[in-house]
Amino acid sequence: MSKFLNKKYCLLEAYTPGEQPQDKKYIKLNTNESPYPPSQGVLEAINGSQVSLLNLYPDPECKELRRNIAAHYGVTESNVFVGNGSDDILNFAFMAFCGRDSEAAFPDISYGFYKVYAELHGIPYKEIPLTESLEVAAQDYIGINKNVFIANPNAPTGLTLSIDEISKICESNRDYIVLIDEAYVDFGAESSASLTQKYGNLITVMTYSKSRSMAGSRLGFAIANEELVKDLEKIKYSTNPYSINRLTNLAGIAAIKDSAYYEENCKKIVETREFTKSELKKLGFEMTDSKSNFIFAKNSRIGGEELYKKLKDNGILVRHFSKARIKDYVRITVGTREQMEILLNVIKGII
Ligand code: PMP
Q1: Domains located in the chain, CATH noted
Q2: Quick check: pTM over 0.90?
Q3: What does the alpha-carbon distance between residue 252 and residue 115 come to, in Å, rounded to a whole number?
């Protein structure tokens, strides 16, 4: 830390992203990326003639992209906000809707960025403990009268809330926003996107990084009431109006048009998840009922950190979190069937 850093950031603990090693080739099961490449349409959309236009700024409104996303989710373009990854949108939501007199609430074990954004912007927040069985208890958020941030499915557990529970949270917190982070929704949970027509305080946030195989291009979107979209745009236009670059914009349009390909991939990932879980169970693992593209697993014969390290020594990267309640677990991204078979063999050798 230099002597120049603004005092308000001195104690800020930044988010630690999962490892992205550039030196050695690992079987990479640590940051919930898709093991499948983008669709043919995406590969074709980013061609030489589009690259040659990079001297020009992109469309700051991303009109065509938003129109395509809106059509896919049965809403209108004015209900869609796009950002540079869903992280960008989460950050904007904390900036736009939270403050000293409008606190935030989120689960104590969830996506680590919620706490970082609250701290970054000096927003008071309440961390609500998960239940014994690591679930988000909907009743804890009913009438809480704070801005609610919930990942559904939650990370790193993969556990879900029902649409009915989300409705009740929205209904009982009318003067606050309810942001449902659906980064993993396409792997088996129910989306709250259609509820945004009914609840003017609901923001459903999704990403192209997981089910749409585009983590490297940074694209996320939110679906919400037009007024909320305008509020998010106000923040975007006060920071970086061109946050979606030309190539990402085109890739995003093409990917939505190729939805059948991505749905097929999600199906394969869900099948591979269930196969891997049943094999891990035979090896004595306990797992949450994950509805996402990762498995959250522990085994009484080996600690989470030790398993993480031994897998890494064997060329497989998974994620370990040091928080007390979940330190026995590892989070394993679901890769291809072949990758998971290698993982299972390596684990057999380790334990
Ligand atoms: N929300 C959750 C719950 C996540 O796990 C992630 C991925 N790290 C994100 C949001 C952010 O994804 P991205 O910025 O790549 O869209």
Answers
A1: 20-37+260-350 (3.90.1150.10), 40-257 (3.40.640.10)
A2: yes
A3: 29
